[in-house]
């Protein structure tokens, strides 16, 4: 899951002789990801990304701490948004609807952002170097759900129920994302909502409410 908000900040940067041009974080990310897709993530350097975008190496690092963060940084923003939405959930809201609304709320995209989102998903799914980083990033996403579930269940966050729910929620959402990216025949929110309802239905049928 990788979020793609527009970034309207535009610091002026030098792009060789002539009038300085400006760029945005999103524009720089798009240039980088298109290069990654065409030439292979492992072979593209930061210097090549900066040159293709017409910015300096220093400007690249003003926006991104490293090359991988071009693809993963917005995913981490999604995790933070899920945590904020879960924390703001009214006490009377049932656990599964609260999780569903938080996940859907953190995955709202404008139509013009969807091609970029699919590109991110393709890169994460095909570049071994990015997949190697998935454990940390997906682990943070899973932990947000696990901790919320533990609180609602009155369970140990390291216990079976909370950890199983966190892992299962991540798994069904990843499946929804992957199928959506492959087919793009319905809104992402529809895939996510259906996956989460299926999980809720199965969890309720199993009666797994112990910690």
From TrEMBL:
Keyword RNA-binding: no
InterPro entries: DNA-bd_HTH_TetR-type_CS, Homeodomain-like_sf, HTH-type_TetR-like_transc_reg, HTH_TetR, MftR_C, Tscrpt_reg_TetR-type
Ranges where the HTH tetR-type domain occurs: 22-82
Keyword Oxidoreductase: no
Any GO molecular function: transcription cis-regulatory region binding
Region (Disordered): 1-21
Record's keyword terms, sorted: DNA-binding, Transcription, Transcription regulation
Pfam families: TetR_C_14, TetR_N
Superkingdom, natural source: Bacteria
Residue ranges of DNA binding: 45-64
PANTHER family assigned: HTH-TYPE TRANSCRIPTIONAL REGULATOR BETI (PTHR30055:SF234), HTH-TYPE TRANSCRIPTIONAL REGULATOR RUTR (PTHR30055)
Protein name in UniProt: Mycofactocin system transcriptional regulator
Record organism: Naumannella cuiyingiana
